[in-house]
Amino acid sequence: MEVFLADIEKKAYHMAAFATGSHADALDLLQDSMIKLVTNYQQRPSQEWKPLFYKILQNRIRDWHRHQKVKNVIFFWKNTNTNDDNQDWPDTLESAGNDKPDDNISKSQQQADALRHLKQLSDKQQQCFMLRSWEGLSVAQTADIMGCSEGSIKTHYFRAVNKLKSLMEADHDISF
Question: What region holds the RNA polymerase sigma-70 region domain (predicted)?
Answer without folding.
Answer: 11-69
